[in-house]
């Protein structure tokens, strides 16, 4: 989990502009979209998380996927993906902050 938070949040702390945020999401999305069809399905999400060293378990992965898939077509498009991350990044940042006791950006 820390690995994800680190790679994901530290660049954001350095430059907090919206455009940078979007390209960060786009990079992550491209990484997850293994067959490059512009959508991430649950298998790609699972594979991606595992490749990043974060096997959350089937149940948690399905929960994330369902929460993100707002039109329930079984795929996450970029918009859904970005929306999900935007909503959850705040929470992740808070969690990260509480771990980072001396505020140097490293838990
Ligand atoms: Ca795909
Ligand atoms: Ca969808």
Automatic annotation (TrEMBL):
<protein>
    <recommendedName>
        <fullName>EF-hand domain-containing protein</fullName>
    </recommendedName>
</protein>
<dbReference type="GO" id="GO:0005509">
    <property type="term" value="F:calcium ion binding"/>
</dbReference>
<keyword id="KW-0479">Metal-binding</keyword>
<dbReference type="InterPro" id="IPR018247">
    <property type="entry name" value="EF_Hand_1_Ca_BS"/>
</dbReference>
<dbReference type="InterPro" id="IPR002048">
    <property type="entry name" value="EF_hand_dom"/>
</dbReference>
<dbReference type="InterPro" id="IPR051581">
    <property type="entry name" value="Ca-bind"/>
</dbReference>
<dbReference type="InterPro" id="IPR011992">
    <property type="entry name" value="EF-hand-dom_pair"/>
</dbReference>
<keyword id="KW-0677">Repeat</keyword>
<dbReference type="Pfam" id="PF13499">
    <property type="entry name" value="EF-hand_7"/>
</dbReference>
<dbReference type="GO" id="GO:0005737">
    <property type="term" value="C:cytoplasm"/>
</dbReference>
<keyword id="KW-0106">Calcium</keyword>
<feature type="domain" description="EF-hand">
    <location>
        <begin position="20"/>
        <end position="55"/>
    </location>
</feature>
<feature type="domain" description="EF-hand">
    <location>
        <begin position="56"/>
        <end position="91"/>
    </location>
</feature>
